[in-house]
Amino acid sequence: MIVLKPNKALVTGIPREINGTIEVPGDKSISHRAIMLGSLAAGVSKIDNLSLSRDNLATVSAFKKLGVVINRVKPNENNKNSKKFVINGAGLHGLKEPKTIINTANSGTLTRLITGILAGGDFFSVLSGDKYLNSRPMKRIIEPLILMGAKIIGRENGNYPPVAINGGKLKSIYYEMPIPSAQVKSCIMLAALFAEGNTVIYEKKATRDHTENFLKLQGCPITVINIKPAENLIAITGGSELNPFEITVPGDFSSAAFFIALGLLRKNSEIIIKNVLLNEKRTGLLKALKMMGADMEITVEDEKLEKVGTIKARYSNLKGVAVPPELVSDMIDEFPIFAVIASFANGITLVSEAGELRVKESDRIKTIVANLSLFGIKIKELEDGFEITGNPGLIFEENSVKLDNKDFVVLDSFGDHRIAMSMIIMGLLLKNRETEVRDIRCISTSFPEFFDTVLKLIK
Fold first, then answer.
1. Which tens digit of pLDDT belongs to each residue from 329-345?
2. Looking at the predicted structure, is the pLDDT value of residue 95 above 70?
3. What distance in Å separates the CA atoms of residue 268 and residue 456, rounded to the nearest whole number?
4. Enclosing domain of residue 196
5. Which one is catalytic: 209, 252, 333, 416?
6. Which of 248, 273, 298 is the last residue of a domain?
7. Alpha-carbon span 74 to 88, nearest angstrom
8. pLDDT tens, 19-65?
9. What SS3 state is found at 364?
10. Is 333 a catalytic residue?
11. CATH number of the domain enclosing 165
């Protein structure tokens, strides 16, 4: 079904139903924050099931470069692939000036969040990533940090990395978020830890709250006030040391989404995903799929740091929907696989007010449209989203439709890990044709275990 070649995958359709139970690696967003806030804590933090993605390992490397002692627990017979890490926190003001440039690889989360921390440090530092990361906009974080007194410069008047930071004393501000962005919000919150007084952030559309959850766990003086169901005021008093913690990172919902798609779309299938993150600000995809008629069962089993539980996804006849704008930020990372799901739904699916997709690892509106068009999907590019006319006949059926009379489709990931994995899932669902997905090295950015997990299910 999948043949791996140097930097590309050849995919053919699955000839039967899929039934199985899996777990996915630790959540990438939570892993980033665990490393960062464990490094700033006054004491020893222990983290289990940390994501071993390239992005998260870049975060480990960055804080080691800043003088933090971080050790991975050595594997043993009972735990041959240890994902346990121990962080000897340096305390709020214990980071050291790095001797070389900090490489942030392909990680927008690392780049944007660590900038807030470095802005409050009493030293100089430079951040730079790969060619894809260095084309992602950074002015959205640099502008509020400069309001706090930070001294930061970057390429093209501060809009792109490399970014140079002269850290120092920061002041508190009131900041109204111009766009819904957990990365921008978290950057300001982390800088607020070093600022004098109370920093207040107003978000008109609430975004994922992993940073808030960690800071509460660590005893930070933080207050979150829900003004309205979707509006928050967040206040942080700077200067307090953070407590260490011990956590197990839940499975990454964005990684689980690819297998939810397989369970829903392959006839007579059921896929169970255990120990997965169920934070409501991350699971907008589940709400959109329910609107489409998806047969899913969600069970919450733990709520210590985050909601964690099990998702069962069963084969479903889906119908197209207009995704409510209020769900967009809660499923922003899942739109590539959502577009694949919508390609097989009856009727039209409309995504709008999702302009943020244009500044992800790729311009995801363009890359989704470009790749699905090659499959013969009727998809229209919009300024802030896309419109798909679904075709259930493309699915693995005896009388499935030819894709523009092609039996072989060649796709480019555009260096975007979520595009690459979504197109591989698409290829697994199609009958009597091969799909070649190129530039798949990027998958290790978030989910290096992806192929192992897929092959476990379809073998």
1. 999 999 999 999 999 99
2. yes
3. 18
4. 28-248
5. 333
6. 248
7. 16
8. 999 999 999 999 999 999 999 999 999 999 999 999 999 999 999 99
9. helix
10. yes
11. 3.65.10.10
